[in-house]
TrEMBL record:
Pfam families: MyTH4 (PF00784), RhoGAP (PF00620). GO terms for molecular function: GTPase activator activity. SUPFAM superfamilies: GTPase activation domain, GAP. Residues 185-373 form the Rho-GAP domain. GO terms for biological process: signal transduction. This is Rho-GTPase-activating protein. CDD domains: RhoGAP. One of its GO terms (cellular component) is cytoskeleton. It comes from the Eukaryota. InterPro entries: MyTH4_dom, MyTH4_dom_sf, Rho_GTPase_activation_prot, RhoGAP_dom.
């Protein structure tokens, strides 16, 4: 059966969407227009406010607005005031847009790294008004190619995640400003953190590393690989160590089943899976193997490359099905819950529809998708 080839976008940045610079190219959503349309004052650092910055903030929230402004103005290097600010916004959700704008004020003009870090925390935890979000994301894009490129890009990645999915942590993320996490953060953020250590690798290094060690330990000779569970304590310990930049995957006490479970855990812990929540409606419109493969072109590039690498690896195992006792249907069943899932609280009927389509989709990729572009990984990607 002939494999179907798809096209990968040639993005400038592996961790950012293809069209992320569109606001600059089209000269859209300037901060000056935002000030004119929504604000009482110019968005620049100041020592105090007497009224909320946003014109449409209810008058009854004036006291809270002044309180959040003081916390943002007085933020210390260790960001110790961030917890109080976050708790205040949680107690009064209607103040969140005001907090976004207040934090923005202190990243303009004479820019402050501390306030950029605070803005990063806010972008991680709260979803801005849809109209405001366009201006905020455009502001981040313009700074993402400036002196503040790195932290502005990470703010953009976090903001797009919470805006697109509504999925956000309930508290300030552990190691919110660190680049060591490998489990529990988005593919885009993992790509951001490895942009210097693995600048040419078009998929998360952790994914490549786990698969490499599985092959090193001859997973193709292990009966029931991916079906038989590993030791949960070992798997959790390996994940925790990787989150601390410690790699013990090749340890003699680590079994193939431990690594297989670790790989499924890595996919399952993604806040937004390889097939993002926001693309599921499009997936439901497809019905055949060709359609399923073509659908992958709708995915963000790093999601495409990650999924392509995984599928190529799984297809390579089919050559050893006499030993593993795992055919394409078995492998698809093992990985479907981690690759395609609905967001918490999703409509039950939609969830049922996805549950019906998802296994066929994953099996179609294993059987029909040409993965030569990503698997086996090319030497040029590793250097």
């Amino acid at each position: 059966m002939k494999l179907i080839k798809t096209n990968l976008p040639s993005d400038q940045f592996l961790h950012l969407p293809s069209d992320f610079q569109k606001p600059i190219a089209d000269d859209l959503y300037q901060i000056s227009d935002f000030e004119k349309n929504f604000c009482r004052v110019k968005l620049a650092p100041t020592n105090e406010i007497k009224k909320p910055v946003l014109k449409n903030l209810p008058k009854k929230l004036t006291s809270q607005a002044r309180q959040t402004f003081k916390l943002i103005h007085d933020i210390s290097k260790d960001l110790k005031e961030a917890d109080e600010l976050v708790n205040l916004v949680k107690a009064t959700p209607d103040i969140s847009d005001e907090v976004f704008v207040q934090a923005l004020m202190f990243t303009t003009g004479k820019k402050s790294l501390i306030h950029w870090k605070l803005l990063l925390i806010i972008c991680s935890l709260f979803v801005p008004n849809k109209e405001h979000s366009r201006y905020l994301s455009a502001y981040l894009v313009r700074n993402a190619i400036d002196d503040w490129a790195e932290i502005a890009q990470l703010c953009y990645i976090r903001l797009m995640h919470v805006t697109d999915t509504g999925v956000k942590p309930s508290q300030i993320p552990e190691q919110a400003l660190s680049g060591t996490l490998k489990f529990g953060i988005t593919i885009a953020e993992q790509m951001f953190h490895q942009r210097k250590s693995h600048p040419n690798l078009p998929l998360p290094h952790t994914l490549y590393r786990i698969v490499s060690v599985l092959q090193l330990k001859h997973c193709e000779q292990s009966e029931g690989v991916f079906r038989e569970p590993g030791n949960k304590k070992v798997v959790d310990k390996l994940a925790e160590e990787l989150n601390q930049d410690k790699d013990e995957l090749e340890g003699s006490d680590v079994t193939v089943n431990d690594l297989a479970s670790l790989l499924k855990k890595w996919f399952g812990d993604l806040p937004n899976p390889p097939v993002p929540f926001e693309t599921l409606d499009a997936l439901l419109m497809d019905s055949g193997e060709n359609d399923f493969v073509d659908f992958t072109e709708l995915l963000p590039r790093a999601n495409q490359t990650s999924l392509m690498f995984l599928v190529g690896f799984l297809r390579s195992l089919l050559k050893h099905a006499d030993k593993t006792r795992m055919d394409s249907k078995n492998l698809a069943m093992c990985f479907t819950p981690a690759i395609v899932r609905v967001a918490d609280g999703e409509d039950k009927e939609k969830a049922k529809s996805i549950d019906k389509v998802a296994p066929a989709f994953v099996e179609a990729l294993i059987k029909r998708w040409n993965t030569d572009q990503m698997y086996p990984i090319k030497d040029e990607f590793l250097h």
